[in-house]
From TrEMBL:
<dbReference type="InterPro" id="IPR011042">
    <property type="entry name" value="6-blade_b-propeller_TolB-like"/>
</dbReference>
<dbReference type="InterPro" id="IPR013658">
    <property type="entry name" value="SGL"/>
</dbReference>
<protein>
    <submittedName>
        <fullName>Gluconolaconase</fullName>
    </submittedName>
</protein>
<dbReference type="InterPro" id="IPR011044">
    <property type="entry name" value="Quino_amine_DH_bsu"/>
</dbReference>
<dbReference type="InterPro" id="IPR051344">
    <property type="entry name" value="Vgb"/>
</dbReference>
<dbReference type="Pfam" id="PF08450">
    <property type="entry name" value="SGL"/>
</dbReference>
<feature type="domain" description="SMP-30/Gluconolactonase/LRE-like region">
    <location>
        <begin position="37"/>
        <end position="257"/>
    </location>
</feature>
């Protein structure tokens, strides 16, 4: 699977207009194109004919004009709606959104005012309106299907103990149809009560159900990348399109079918099976970076793990539904040919061999892991939740430092000592024995760090700068400024609490790594691109 480089003239999701700037003697270029969206999850055609796109990791809802590709923000990052996973509209045009990480369902009225309907719906995901009735499903093991009381009373439980129901729709027969991801089936139930019935089984992990004008089910398959058409009466299946895995939802605009992918790609599927990319896919974050033993840059992007090809396109090495994928990837270090040590948002340190489709958990049970690095004594990693830096050795886990203020990035210096970026303390510290000494102070929010040829490089996500600190001379220099890292100025994102079992709490992390030739790569998680910095070729 590859994601083609998008045109650099297209607007990105990042609202800031501050230009990139580098100090004399350096050059900067984009390795991958910026992303238009923060991924793409739930889809629904609005009363205005535009396609409304829920973006979980960006806490944003956008409206797409499928003819022009123009995007309008319906609910912004930092706004009242957090981690929206699916959307629906009532008869007067009010927008309803499930907030999967907060277990909430909210409504945004036509005047732009938002209020929470309920906050006790764990893993709230699928949602649909039908003839004035609002139905919501919980995408979790043992999830429920609910009908909300729009007058404010408790919801009515249609079904419970359903293995991860997802995006649903009422069919022309008046029955409620929904995918059951944990069973790899599509079910239906009478919304007025009764037992569920299986409509289709042995699929590609269905995660949405919509209906075409002829009353046939159209369903996306997240694991296989298939778009299927299914006769609800006979169960007969037809493949409409084979797309990339990671499909999330679909919607019709008239007779035209549009499909979303976790990458943010929106694809139109024609009745004859031909496809058209309406919006290109891209990086969702990105998070940590590593250069593998063969010299290729790799990107940890949460639900995806990519290798960057020479033309700047992204080749999918693994993703959440790939065999052996260790989970939502955050920290990344190359540990051998075809092998990586990673941290996940689920609290694991793992060894990952993507070509062999296998991973092995090295340590588990941690609270919000971030950066990881290899040291002479083992693996060092940062645990933000407890304020610790830990070392994984053959004999077990050692605490290198405790009481730190939001440790995120880690690196190892030439002496084998651990360096750690304390985001909330605004410093990079050196951990040696029982000592924790400040190396670089007066930073706003340091995140990714790396050491190359005796120089410590720090991504300051608060100042939006890349800092170089010569560890021999103590000279500090701002290499680049105006970096599209972190939220745009003026935006304060709400915490992303995670969505078990798929991930734990999610948070930003602008990583940095160095290639053998000294090229630095930076995760521009603000606009969803990767940047490269290197010394000017003319030597100045």
């Amino acid at each position: 699977m590859s994601i083609s480089r998008a045109s650099s003239t297209l607007p990105s999701r990042y609202g800031a207009v501050q230009p990139l700037d580098v100090t004399e003697g350096w050059e900067i270029e984009r390795v991958t194109a910026p992303s238009r969206l923060f991924g793409a999850n739930g889809l629904r055609t609005g009363p205005d004919g535009r396609i409304y796109i829920a973006q979980v990791t960006g806490s944003q809802i956008s409206a797409l004009d499928h003819c022009t590709g123009q995007l309008m923000t319906a609910s912004p990052k930092g706004g009242d709606i957090v981690a929206p996973d699916d959307v629906a509209f009532d008869a007067v045009g009010n927008l309803y959104a499930t907030e999967v990480m907060d277990g909430r369902v909210s409504v945004r009225d036509t005047g732009g005012r938002t209020r929470v309907l309920r906050d006790d719906v764990p893993s709230a995901n699928g949602i649909t309106f039908h003839r004035g009735r609002l139905f919501v499903g919980e995408c979790r093991e043992g999830g429920r299907l609910l009908e909300f009381d729009l007058a404010g009373g408790p919801p009515r439980v249609l079904l419970e103990n359903v293995p991860s129901p997802n995006a649903m729709e009422v069919g022309p027969d008046g029955l409620l149809y929904f995918p059951v991801m944990g069973a790899n089936e599509i079910w239906r139930v009478d919304p007025d009560g009764g037992e569920p019935h299986c409509v289709a089984r042995d699929l590609g992990v269905p995660d949405s159900v919509k209906f075409d004008a002829q009353g046939r089910i159209v369903s996306t398959q997240v694991a296989s990348g298939q778009v299927l058409r299914i006769d609800p009466r006979s169960g007969e299946q037809r493949l409409l399109a084979q797309l990339n895995p990671g499909l999330d939802n679909c919607t019709f605009v008239g007779d035209r079918l549009f499909v979303s992918n976790f990458t943010g790609e929106i694809t139109e599927v024609s009745p004859d099976g031909t496809t058209r990319s309406v919006l290109p896919g891209g990086l969702n974050w990105p998070l940590d970076l590593a250069v593998s033993h063969d010299g290729r840059l790799h990107v940890a992007d949460g639900t995806y793990f990519y290798a960057v090809l020479p033309d700047g396109s992204l080749h999918t090495v693994g993703m959440l539904f790939s065999p052996g994928y260790p989970g939502f990837l955050r920290g990344l270090a190359s540990s051998g040919p075809g092998e990586f040590v990673v941290t996940t948002s689920g609290g694991q340190v793992a060894r990952y061999r993507p070509q062999a489709s296998e991973s092995a958990v090295l340590a588990d049970g941690f609270d919000q892991l971030y950066g990881v690095a290899l040291s002479p004594g083992g693996v060092v990693f940062a645990e933000l939740g407890t304020g610790r830096v830990l070392s994984l050795r053959s004999g077990g886990i050692d605490e290198l430092a405790t009481g730190l203020r939001e440790p995120v990035g880690v690196a190892v210096d030439s002496d084998g000592a651990c360096l750690v970026a304390e985001a909330a303390a605004g410093r990079v510290a050196r951990v040696a024995g029982s000592r924790v000494d400040t190396v670089v102070a007066d930073l706003e929010r340091p995140q990714g760090i790396c050491v190359c040829d005796g120089v410590l490089y720090v991504v300051d996500a608060g100042a939006k700068e890349l800092i170089a600190f010569d560890m021999n001379t103590g000279i500090r220099q701002t290499v680049a400024s105006g970096l599209p890292v972190g939220p745009p100025p003026g935006v304060v994102p709400k915490p992303l609490k995670g969505m078990p079992p798929f991930s734990g709490p999610q948070g930003p992390f602008a990583g940095v790594t160095a290639a053998v030739d000294g090229t630095l790569y930076v995760s521009a998680d603000g606009d969803g691109s990767v940047l490269a910095l290197h010394r000017s070729r003319d030597g100045r």
